[in-house]
Write a structure and sequence with these properties.
Blueprint: E1 7-12, H1 19-34, E2 39-43, H2 55-58, H3 67-77, E3 79-83, H4 84-89, E4 101-104, H5 106-113, E5 118-122
Parallel strand pairs: 1-2, 1-5, 2-3, 3-4
Helix pairs in contact: 1-3
């Protein structure tokens, strides 16, 4: 049984450069949302591109759920954050990201990951 007071914080560092790791992080986050768990998904490194409209639809991995659907599920029931430095390195601004995606930095990640009842996973 899921304990709803626990938050799952997922930090994803991979994108198309490591598709299985990328897909697994999105799958875990979306599955947790579906189970009623509060979820915070952080997009860092190459996964930063998935904060942009249309980018998740371009991702392909055989036998995996569409990344676009997984991202929509997390946006619908959890939070998605794009790393400040990762966004800046890629020229991504707040005006560029999908509705519901916020841009925040390491201090916000540490606060979420160390909150009472939080469980952090890094992919």
């Amino acid at each position: 049984m899921v304990e709803p007071s626990r938050t799952l914080v997922v930090k994803l560092t991979a994108g198309a450069d490591a598709p299985e790791r990328c897909s697994q992080a999105f799958t875990v986050a979306a599955t947790a949302v579906a189970a009623g768990v509060p979820v915070s998904l952080w997009l860092t490194g190459e996964s930063a591109w998935y904060a942009l409209p249309g980018r998740a639809a371009e991702f392909e991995l055989p036998h995996a759920a569409p990344l676009e659907d997984l991202l929509a599920a997390v946006l619908g029931g959890g939070t998605v954050t794009l790393c400040t430095q990762c966004a800046a390195r890629r020229g991504i601004g707040a005006q560029d990201v999908l509705d519901g995606v916020r841009i925040a930095g390491a201090a916000a990640f540490v606060e979420e990951a160390l909150a009472p009842g939080a469980q952090a996973l890094v992919y």
